[in-house]
């Protein structure tokens, strides 16, 4: 088994339904975050990335595909770098509390 190394982490903003981010495609938003993340580790060559795991909670519509892979392609690593998307709904954050 090889070692795993985490160089940086980020998340995308979230908003209210049909608010400012409603017109932004999920993979475009993710690609912006991923590119910014990679810029935080200038010593890490994009070709040195072994794998990308992208989290997505409650994906539907355009979210319901491999957003991690679709975001990775415009971020610059070679197409040979794999990426996957994990739906972790139980780990998502909400600003509403029901009684």
Automatic annotation (TrEMBL):
Stretches assigned to coiled coil: none
A Gene Ontology molecular function term of the record: acyltransferase activity, transferring groups other than amino-acyl groups
InterPro entries for the chain: Thiolase-like, Thiolase_N
Location of the Thiolase N-terminal domain: 8-94
Signal peptide per UniProt: none
Record protein name field: Thiolase-like protein
